[in-house]
Amino acid sequence: MLVNHQNVPETQQKFLPKRIILVRHGESAGNLDGSAYATTPDYKIPLTEDGIQQAKLAGTQIRNVVSDSGKLKNWKVCFYVSPYERTRSTLREIGRSFGRNRVIGVKEECRIREQDFGNFQIAERMNIIKQTRERFGRFFYRFPEGESAADVFDRVSSFLESLWRDIDTRLHYEPSEDLNIIIVSHGLASRVFLMKWFKWTVEQFEYLNNFNNCEFRVMQLGDSGEYSLAVHHSDEEMLEWGLSAEMIHDQKCRASGVIEKSQWYMDSFFDHLDSDSEDGDKEYRATENTNS
Predict the structure, then answer these.
(1) Which residue of the set 93, 114, 147, 226 is catalytic?
(2) Using CB atoms within 10 A as the burial measure, which of 34, 111, 114, 189 is most buried?
């Protein structure tokens, strides 16, 4: 999609995908029985039969979204997928809803893999570790021999830089057509992706709920040329995901093109400041004179 920014010549307007869709994998053997991780490497955990059916249904639902239930004609999709067995299998089933002429590319991407919990996972030990994580904080707690959510944030941030380069180079084609990027990944990696993209704080991340199996989030370009969850999703959905009223308001601003100062974000850091900026200036000058 060619984004039409005001007073920008058409030759300089930036091409952007119409949507970026984040999908969690279908139900896996590990979701059904946590003891599977004690004998099978995490990356080899397969989908269950229900997981396969969930992925097929997700493919149909995503096709309906990108084609506007068949009303749109000029649309394409490009996939990024985690290298884990359950994500690759999910992609395989989702792909059944798309003809080859609709898919312009598929790329395996290690940086959107599952959080590393530390090789084989013994259930009794993991239960104690996860209790410790709740006391420590979910974002910063690093699993022994594994990763923290903060570590995942770092590699997802690196992936985002590569994604932008792909958009600027590899993914260019007829701008009259709508491109949709579909990222098949894991629950935590997807939440961290949204956190990075929308500049959510660690505290806001802690309140986010995980995706259900094969649940997806649609980031769609709004009138302002910014991506927003509010274009496709309702307030009720976003509340269920753990977004606060302020975060939902920000998504609506992104969708509508109404640019507002992010007071909700500033207040999380500067709630002690007087609303009258002149008072703050006077206090600063008084301090400077005292120190002189």
Answers:
(1) 114
(2) 189
232 in a domain, yes or no?
Answer: no
pLDDT score at 162: 95
Tokens representing 159 are 């992936």
CATH number at residue 32: 3.40.50.1240
The pLDDT of residue 277: 55
User: Is 239 part of any domain?
Assistant: no
pLDDT of 237 over the 50 cut: yes
How high is the pLDDT of residue 264? 56
Q: What is the pTM of this model?
A: 0.86
* Residue 46 within any structural domain of the chain: yes
Q: How far apart are CA 160 and CA 154, in angstroms?
A: 10
Clarify whether 27 is annotated catalytic. Answer: no
- Is 283 an active-site residue? no
User: How sure is the predictor about 286, in pLDDT bands with cuts at 50, 70 and 90?
Assistant: low
267 domain-assigned: no
* DSSP states along 26-46: --BHHHH-GGGGGTS-GGGPP
